[in-house]
Design goal:
Elements: H1 4-24, H2 45-51, E1 57-60, H3 62-72, H4 74-94, E2 100-114, H5 117-120, E3 128-144, E4 150-163, E5 173-185, H6 192-261, H7 267-301, E6 304-305, E7 308-309, E8 313-316, H8 329-339, H9 341-362, E9 367-380, H10 383-391, E10 396-405, H11 411-449
Parallel strand pairs: 1-8
Antiparallel strand pairs: 2-3, 3-4, 4-5, 5-9, 6-7, 9-10
């Protein structure tokens, strides 16, 4: 079996040709046997094969087979979906910075007994109900920015009606305010890296999924080539055993003639018949092997007719070409280190582990949050007058808040941090292990080629 290192350049050529043809929707013709001729494009291979239930013969080159597999293979489709899932994960992490609008409304109606002339007025001589009706509407627009700060803009209006009303200037009264506020974490949870690193990790995971897709593509290409050449070998083996059968039959005819002429013992006819029977068995076995190799190639290409695998007979058009090649060990190792997708995946996982460790270290810090903002208040007997009052900037207030929270023990954060450090060390070891494995694989492959 040809090693992957020996076939690497050939893989690159096949994959480049396949992807180029697929992206440009170029048509690749597949010649069909004389009993039923048709043309099938790689892009519509699966659909056309399913529709052509009477398709009996199909000639395929190795490039065509690879294109069919890249179009229809289930593993390829699964890898594509994995990449799409990672796109959604990136969007999820970015959505943390999307603004949020909150709307709140409430109505309250209370009746309480009055036991004071200060509340009910001097005319109050007995216990009577005190009625208060209130309506509140509140709107808040809130968003987080990459530094970890939370920005909010709030508009609130409250209408209040009381009965009796001995001392109020306005009844009903409309009170409202507009408040702009920012809360910035200074230690735990603060900083550009801490809040953006989940996006960086998600992007690396996307690159890892693309690298896995590349691995799957190489493996499928490798499987197609192996299955294709196994089918070619099986067909050539059948030619050999057919030729052997012809020679055995010729020997049987000659023996019969010689026995009739009296120049050969009759036992030689039995030996020749046994030889013919043995060759017939070999032909049947070779024909079954061809069917097995055909089915394996069709399975990789997902070459179906309806719900089952197609019964079309595949005729390979390519013949193996043997060319002596020389491989330098150092160059081969360097090429493997630069191009092996598995190694790229491990490097990205190590980078993700490092970012996660840095995030966990930030979470060891106490929470120190700084809040500042400005508020404009208003009052009126109607909503419009209350709004005029609030936008007049006559009633302005500013506020500053500094809050500190220190966890006692902080065991959860410390455990998460130690866990991340261990995972980062593990990721680095996996990279070194894979590099060693690659060196050994290349050395073995070069020796096999030599």
């Amino acid at each position: 079996m040809i090693t992957r290192n020996k076939k690497f350049k050939k893989y690159c050529i096949y994959i480049s040709v396949a992807i180029y043809i697929v992206l440009l929707n170029l048509k690749v013709s597949s010649s069909i046997g004389s009993e039923n001729k048709a043309q099938i494009t790689p892009k519509a291979a699966k659909q056309n094969v399913e529709m052509s239930s009477n398709l009996r013969y199909m000639s395929l080159s190795l490039t065509d087979s690879i294109i069919y597999a890249l179009q229809n293979n289930f593993d390829i489709e699964i890898s594509k979906l994995d990449s799409r899932i990672e796109d959604y994960n990136i969007t999820v992490e970015k959505a943390r910075f999307d603004p949020v609008v909150k709307l709140t409304g409430s109505i309250e109606n209370d009746e309480e007994p009055i036991n004071s002339q200060l509340v009910g007025g001097l005319e109050t001589t007995s216990i009577s109900p005190f009625v208060e009706e209130g309506k509140t509407a509140d709107t808040v627009i809130q968003s987080m920015i990459p530094t970890g700060a939370t920005l909010s803009l709030e508009y609130n209006i409250f209408s209040d009606f009381v009965d009796p009303n001995p001392f109020r200037l306005l009844n009903p009264a409309y009170q409202n305010y507009i408040e702009a506020k920012i809360t910035q974490p200074l230690l735990k949870g603060g900083g550009w890296f801490y809040n953006r690193s989940p996006i960086y990790i998600a992007r690396n995971n996307k690159t890892i999924s693309l690298s896995k897709f590349k691995v799957t593509t190489i493996e499928i290409t490798d499987s197609v080539q192996e299955a294709y050449w196994n089918l070619v070998k099986a067909i050539e083996d059948l030619k050999v055993v057919n030729k052997s059968l012809e020679r055995a039959e010729d020997l049987l005819k000659k023996n019969k003639i010689q026995v009739e002429a009296g120049t050969l013992a009759p036992i030689e006819i039995i030996d020749a018949e046994a030889g013919v029977a043995s060759r017939v068995e070999a032909v049947i076995s070779a024909e079954n092997t061809i069917k097995d190799k055909e089915d394996e190639l069709k399975r990789i290409m997902n070459f179906t007719d309806g719900e089952v695998i197609s019964d079309a007979i595949i005729t390979p058009t390519d013949k193996p070409v043997f060319e002596p090649k020389k491989f330098e060990l150092k160059d081969s190792i360097k090429l493997a280190m630069e191009n092996r997708p598995e190694l790229q995946q491990l490097h990205l996982k190590t980078e993700n582990a490092g970012m996660q460790t840095k995030r966990r270290k930030n979470e060891l810090l106490p929470a120190l949050d700084f809040t500042t903002g400005i508020r404009y208040a208003g009052l009126g007997d109607e909503v419009s007058s209350a709004n005029d009052s609030v936008f007049s900037e006559d009633f302005q207030g500013e506020f500053f808040t500094l809050s500190l929270a220190i966890p006692i023990g902080n065991r959860s954060a410390r455990s998460q941090y130690n866990k991340s450090k261990t995972e980062e060390r593990q990721a680095n070891i996996n990279v070194k292990k894979k590099e060693l494995d690659i060196v050994v694989e290349v050395r073995v492959s070069v020796r096999q080629v030599t």
